[in-house]
Write the structure tokens for this entry.
Amino acid sequence: MVEEKIEVYCPRCGKSVRWKGSLYRPFCSQRCKLIDLGRWIEEEYCLQGEQLLSDEEEGDSNAA
Ligand SMILES: [Zn+2]
């Protein structure tokens, strides 16, 4: 069985992580996981804000 030798690379810092037994996979540590999650939420929040603004603008120009 090679299952125990599976390794992935942390999407945050690129460090190799042993898949089996890793609490924060695919991240190497809780720190990397939290950083990546926080960034994702921030991006999502920004995208939604921009979408709302451009939607309003489009509706306005369509009506006029
Ligand atoms: Zn990492």
Remarks:
- The domain at 3-63 is CATH 3.30.50.10 (Erythroid Transcription Factor GATA-1; Chain A).
- The radius of gyration is 20 Å.
